[in-house]
Amino acid sequence: MTTTEREHTAPALELVVARYREDLSWLRELGLPACVYNKGPELDPGLPPPGARITPLPNLGREAHTFLTHIIAQYHALPRHTAFLQGNPFAHLAPPEEPPVTPATLRQRLLDLAAADTPFAGLAWFRLRCDGLGRPHDLADPAKQGRWKGWGKDIPVGRVFEALFDAPAPAEFLVRAATGNMLVRRDRILARPLAFYQRALELVLADADDAENTGHAFERLWQTLFSGATPR
User: Fold this and answer.
1) What is the pLDDT of residue 44?
2) Are 84 and 67 in contact (CB under 8 A)?
3) What pLDDT score does 231 carry?
4) Three-state SS string across the chain, please?
5) Which residues make beta-bridge pairs with 15?
């Protein structure tokens, strides 16, 4: 199949969902093509929308492992836009003092972004700036103690950047997709060669239980990974 033929058969917008134990009933309400990577208990087959692809994965590497696995597997068959989402993205989509985003609202936002041919959009309600250690961060929050092995440590944003790009890390990073919920256009993904994503996945797998917070570092680097430009 040629590249042109793949573009005609692939959906214009597809959701890629990194799920652990979250209730995915919202996904059916969105009613959009979806690929669910399940790292937790078996899913109720009635929850995802008809036609959704369900792929089991081992529970390691946070959503960075999920998203990179998908990109590598689908590198030559990506849709025009991919929305990468956590199993429960809604806690991050609106400020806590505002009404929560509904599945219908999220669906419309994704469709609007795709219709505008948006190259990249972080879906969280906030952006942040951090240094090469991910500061400021809340990874020492007592309420989160014990959730993963890297609790209490800094985030190696600078070190992961240098490993990915073989270049000195900047002093500051502008983070546009801090929660790992984002929409990305195909050319932004393809601007990096397949080997780049394979190397990125190796970095994640080298810290599979996130003891050094490598997965957290990717949450602060997605817009950098997808910052290239190729002919549309």
Assistant:
1) 79
2) yes
3) 41
4) CCHHHHHHHCCCEEEEEEECCCCCHHHHHHCCCEEEEECCCCCCCCCCCCCCEEEECCCCCHHHHHHHHHHHHHCCCCCCEEEEEECCHHHHCCCCCCCCCCHHHHHHHHHHHHHCCCCEEECCCCCEEECCCCCCCCCCCHHHCCCCCCCCCCCCHHHHHHHHHCCCCCCCEEECCCCCCEEEEHHHHHCCCHHHHHHHHHHHHCCCCCCCCHHHHHHCCHHHHCCCCCCC
5) 34, 83
State how far the Cα of 96 lies from the Cα of 151, in Å rounded to an integer.
Answer: 24
Residue 49 has a pLDDT of 79
Cα–Cα distance for residue pair 188/206, rounded to 1 Å? 26
Tokens of 116: 């505008």
b/e code 59-73 from CB counts within 10 Å (16+ = b): eebbbbbbbbbbbee
- Whole-angstrom Cα distance, residue 98 to residue 106? 15
The pLDDT of residue 132 is 97
- State pLDDT tens for residues 16-31: 999 999 999 999 899 9
Which regions in the chain score pLDDT beneath 50? 1-9, 231-232
